Here is the input.
Amino acid sequence: MTNFIKFFCIFALIFTTTHGSLQASIEDDLTSFTQVMANDVLVIIKSQASYNEKEKRLQALFVKLVDIDWMAKFAVAKFWRTMSPANQNEYLKVYKNYLLKLYVPRFRDYNDQDLAISGIKSLGNSQFLISTDIIASDGVTKVNIQYRCKDEGGRNFKIRDIVAENISLITTQRSEFSSIIEQGKIDDLITILRNKVVQ
Here is the structure.
């Protein structure tokens, strides 16, 4: 199962049980948020809409759920401050398209895997880590996926990282992107990401 499907389908079960380490009111808000999003995702995936229509609707939902700009800035670390405003704007646009191209088309791989919550904990600073297991049809094979989200105020939760089998998406990107910039310049990274989108 691809990371995109793991990310989206997990919302069908996240926060459906209580966890004593978190305040009940926060759990309630997270539960409500997650259930609405999960329902929206699964309705799209299982609908009779065309592939292009599903992709368009999932892209809009992905943008709503994920803090793409924060992830983009984290991925280039210190180099963000050295970019010109024009480069910053272009990089944010290309990074967003890159993420959408990377994840959204993979929804076709969803085939009703079982999902289980293995833990939810507060990380402080209004951030939370959700640990999950995706269980294959054999009932034995499991893939651990973790999601870090932040309350941006007023219980406005956004996903900021996806960790698959202890490999962080944004940490991996930071390493890869920094290497590209150090060996060339930010324009090289923008070109590489743009080319990946059009492939």
About this structure: The chain has one domain: 3-198. The mean pLDDT is 79. Helices lie at 3-9, 24-46, 51-65, 68-76, 85-103, 169-183, 186-198. The domain at 3-198 is CATH 3.10.450.710 (Nuclear Transport Factor 2; Chain: A,).
